[in-house]
Design a protein that fits this description.
- A hairpin with a 2-residue loop joins strand 2 and strand 3 (64-67).
- This protein is α/β, with parallel strands linked by helices.
- A seven-stranded mixed sheet has the order 3-2-1-4-5-6-7, with helices on both faces. The chain has a six-stranded parallel sheet with strand order 10-9-8-11-12-13, with helices on both faces.
- Among the domains are: 3-68 and 231-338, Rossmann fold; 355-523, Glycogen Phosphorylase B (Rossmann fold, 3-Layer(aba) Sandwich), CATH 3.40.50.2000.
- It has helices at 3-9, 22-25, 33-45, 48-51, 80-114, 117-135, 138-156, 163-230, 256-265, 278-281, 288-304, 313-325, 355-364, 382-394, 412-419, 436-445, 460-467, 478-484, 496-507, 526-541; strands at residues 16-20, 54-61, 64-67, 242-246, 269-274, 307-310, 336-338, 368-373, 399-404, 428-431, 448-451, 472-475, 489-491.
- Helix 14 packs across helix 19 (496-507).
Length: 558
């Protein structure tokens, strides 16, 4: 009997395991971390009797943690009233943002419109003058020229001419001086008025932005108050025998940790699901603000958690290195365990694919299509994939590329490259907002899945593809090796030519003979994944609080 089995025998000391779902409850997203949290809460609740421990999803409100029914986490389409209110809100926001844009860009728009106008006016005036002079007889033009010369001399010389001429031109000079002064005043007034308008525009811009920010904060505060009122009879105080599993995206939740510390002081065991340490290990792939927020989050985890459970061995080792360097004692190898994410579709019945997805599947037809799943960001390395397919298309290969994922960090140039590509809508397709039904349809329509990431915590699309019997072509990083060693073709993520070569081999069915058949790949579904995670958590929680003496483990004879 192993030490882990012995720890599992002490799981009777764990009476309940609470899964934090605060962020997931507020979003309809069913991919990424949200998919993991929903499955842990929904499927885990149905395994309470099997595991001998109550598995309960909880939310954090202003009063503390509150238990919710699992079906609250199932995304539902909004009702007609909610859709109407959202439509009205979008209209109001559109009008406000249009006014804001007008205030911000009015000076620029005026400069753009006025650019070249003086030159065009002068050219038009000269053209009209030349045309008029061409129509006049020569004797009239000579007379007008002589008269204008005489008039200009008399106007410039106050002592020229007779007394009557001097009085006339003196009066004319006064009128012209008055008109010039009025023009100067008008010009200065217009300049001052323009400055005032610019200041009003900047102030209005700030007021609109601050108003939006204030409205968002008030909406969030109102949502918290309403949630606390709705769950007023469901609040619980976690104590001895309880395990709090922080599986949600709570990196920037300062409100969470006082409640976590209070629960731990009452004897509860606290754990976190560790997805990756990319913001810390590869800060060039994330916003610098996220790096500081994530580092502060990891410091709170090492100070307030009793153990962690990671989604890969690579992430587990990364976290242990950080925890041991943080100065918090007790972070030994037994305090960090792992589990595998499920490779099948989500638990609930999938909706049918959208019309746009069905149209893409129809356009692809019987042609070979390669699927890329993941957020459109620089870490996912879409640039190398597009470069490889540009090579194939230039060679005349009739192959399609399907990209599925929301816009992400610093990928605007690549997204613009996709939309302006000559193959856009023909052999290149991108769905930024796809449902689970769309994902399943695109998996079925694809020939293989490509993952070209520079860094991953797990690489779920590789497991999903192989579990569905689809070949995978993945970048050579530890997370992908951990999942698909022996089943998957790997390439250097900085070498698009290697990726193009592997795609050619896949198209010609000449995969490496060293690779095992895709049909032999075995991977847990979400039921098995959730069971594996919860069993690991219960067994590790039996070790007690971090820093305390581990409970005695008596090994019985096998």
């Amino acid at each position: 009997m192993t030490a882990r089995d012995a720890s599992s025998s002490l799981a009777g000391s764990v009476r309940a395991l609470f899964v934090d779902c605060t962020h997931v409850y507020q979003t309809r997203n069913t991919s990424g971390i949200a998919r993991v949290v929903r499955n842990l809460a929904v499927l885990g609740s149905g395994m309470s009797s099997e595991l001998g421990v109550g598995i309960r999803p909880i939310l954090l409100t202003s009063r503390g943690f509150a238990v919710i029914p699992p079906d609250w986490l199932t995304p539902r389409p909004p009702g007609a009233i909610v859709r109407f209110i959202r439509w009205c809100a979008r209209c109001v926001l559109a009008v406000a943002r249009s006014a804001e844009a007008l205030l911000v860009f009015a000076p620029l728009l005026a400069r753009v419109i006025w650019a070249g106008c003086p030159e065009r006016i002068a050219a038009s005036s000269h053209a009209i003058g030349r045309k008029i002079r061409g129509m006049l007889p020569s004797w009239l033009k000579t007379g007008l020229k002589i008269s204008a010369t005489w008039f200009g001399r008399r106007l410039a010389d106050p002592d020229a001419g007779t007394i009557g001429t001097r009085w006339f031109f003196g009066f004319l000079r006064l009128i012209l001086a008055f008109l010039g002064l009025c023009g100067h005043v008008i010009a200065r007034t217009c300049m001052g008025f323009g400055t005032i308008l610019a200041r009003v525009g900047r102030t209005g811009n700030r007021m609109i932005r601050n108003g939006f920010r204030w409205a968002r904060l008030q909406r969030a505060a109102l949502r918290h108050r309403l949630l606390a009122f709705r769950l007023r009879t469901r609040h619980v105080e976690l104590g001895a025998g309880d395990v709090l599993l922080l599986a949600d995206s709570n990196w920037d939740s300062a409100q969470l940790w006082p409640h976590v510390a209070a629960a731990r002081s009452r004897g509860a065991i606290v754990a976190s699901v560790m997805y990756d340490l990319i913001p810390l290990r590869r800060p060039d792939f994330v916003d610098h603000r996220l790096t500081s927020v994530f580092t502060a989050h990891l410091k709170r985890v090492t100070a307030n958690n009793d153990f962690i459970i990671a989604i890969s061995r690579d992430t587990c080792l990364d976290y242990l290195d950080f925890a041991r360097s943080s100065g918090n004692p007790g972070w030994v190898a037994s305090r960090a365990c792992t589990f595998r994410l499920g490779g099948d579709k989500w638990t609930n019945v999938l909706t049918s694919c959208s019309e746009s997805c069905a149209e893409v599947v129809r356009l692809v037809g019987d042609r070979a299509a390669f699927l890329v799943v993941g957020t459109f960001e620089i870490r996912k390395n879409h640039r190398a994939i597009l470069d490889a397919f540009d090579r194939l298309w230039s060679e005349g290969a009739d192959v399609c590329l399907l990209i599925l994922g929301r816009p992400g960090f610093r990928a605007g140039d690549q997204m613009a490259r996709v939309r302006s590509h000559r193959e856009w809508g023909k052999r290149l397709f991108w769905a930024p907002n796809a449902s689970d039904g769309d994902l399943e349809s695109w998996y079925r329509a694809s020939r293989a899945v490509i993952m070209a990431s520079f860094a991953e915590g797990f690489g779920l699309p590789v497991a999903e593809a192989l579990a569905r019997g689809k070949p995978a072509i993945a970048s050579d990083i530890p997370a992908h090796r951990e999942i698909a060693e022996g089943f998957c073709s790997f390439f250097d993520p900085s070498r698009p030519d290697q990726l193009a070569t592997l795609i050619r081999r896949e198209l010609s069915d000449t995969r490496s003979p060293d690779l095992k058949p895709v049909g032999d790949f075995k991977w847990p579904d979400w039921q098995a994944s959730v069971r594996e995670c919860l069993r690991e958590c219960i067994a590790t929680a039996a070790l007690g609080p971090r820093g305390a003496t581990n409970p005695a483990i008596h090994l019985r004879a096998s």
